[in-house]
Amino acid sequence: MAQQPENNIVRTAYEALAAVLGGTQSLHTNSMDEVLSLPTEKTVKIALRTQQIIAYETGVTNTVDPLAGSYFLEALTTTLEEEAEEYFQRIAELGGVVAGIEDGFFQREIADASYRYQKALEKKEHIMVGVNAFIDPPNPSDAVSVLKIDPAIEREQVRSLQDRKAHRNVDCVRQQLAQLTVACRTEDAPLMPVLLDCVRAEATLGEIVHTMKEVFGGWRERPVF
Description:
about 0% strand, single chain, mainly alpha, 9 helices
């Protein structure tokens, strides 16, 4: 949360620990200031140290399944599975994921869930420390330093890209992008090998996306209110 963002360190630690206890195969811990901007090096390191403390200081990795046999957690898991299956059935009845996207189903579900959550916060049916409870008066000294990108970095990146495009084999790039067009127009053709060839030829991400858009078009979500 943007209010009292240091609290996000604690939230992230508990969330990460819960993920480990649940047997996660991959874990990412957000930095406390990502709600405000791209994270600073300091907050990124805190997020990394959060994972390392869990891994090396808690002992949670010493057991394959520390919570095995917990009736409460098994009951929660069963409920989650049942409700997930109900969702899958609803999506299937819509005609699948693509049909659901085109119908705006997922956007409506997200919007409705966000609205319910916000109303619960406003009514204090759901407590979030520092947001709707235990709120401190505004104090300028509590402001968090956010990452500011030097405009010179953008200029240097543009210059570097222009230099790369000026020294690459233009004919090779055009040839690979043409092959990408053919692959996109060929039903069931594997695109990944062709995309990798484009990258090896030093085609830019923008050029690759533009080529694919010429075949597939672009998707614009319908507003959901």
